[in-house]
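User: Quick sanity check before I run a bigger batch. Here is a single chain. Can you write out its predicted 3D structure?
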Amino acid sequence: MEQNPILGFVAIAIAVICSGFAGVYFEKVLKSSSTSLWVRNIQMYLSGIAITLLGVYLTDGAQVMEKGFFFGYTPWVCFVIFLASVGGLYTSVVVKYTDNIMKGFSAAAAIVLSTIASVLLFGLQLTVTFLSGALLVCVSIYLYGLPKQDTSTLSRASDPGSASKEKLLGVKTPV
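Assistant: Done. Predicted structure follows.
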């Protein structure tokens, strides 16, 4: 099958835009509602379960009916499902008490840390592209975590006429 780079780029751009809007909407729903975080998670999980079950029965319905839904589940599969559930709860808590940007940073940091573990444990070979991306992630997390500056004093100090306006009006502005 022939690849189409433009179609791939458009598909990724649409996925990124949808993901961004979903993250912002998710943050709005969590922060603007008096409903508890746990009830919201149950609501989201129920809709996800319904859609997933529909997909399972449309693609593998005959096999599920013959062998059962949990056929082939091993303790490792159950562990991965547990980790995904805990990750979803963790994501909800992060978004509820920080913001969607921090969720993105935590996901990017998790990728960097997983890669470091893969290098140490499995001898993964890193590329220059990945290393530059990881550096950008680390720098952006650092810059985002810097304390905010009070820009109101900066704008008064840079306005040469502000001192003469204060004298004329007889007002002192706190610094």
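The helical segments are 5-32, 37-67, 75-97, 100-122, 128-145, 151-158, 162-169.

User: Great, the batch can go ahead then.
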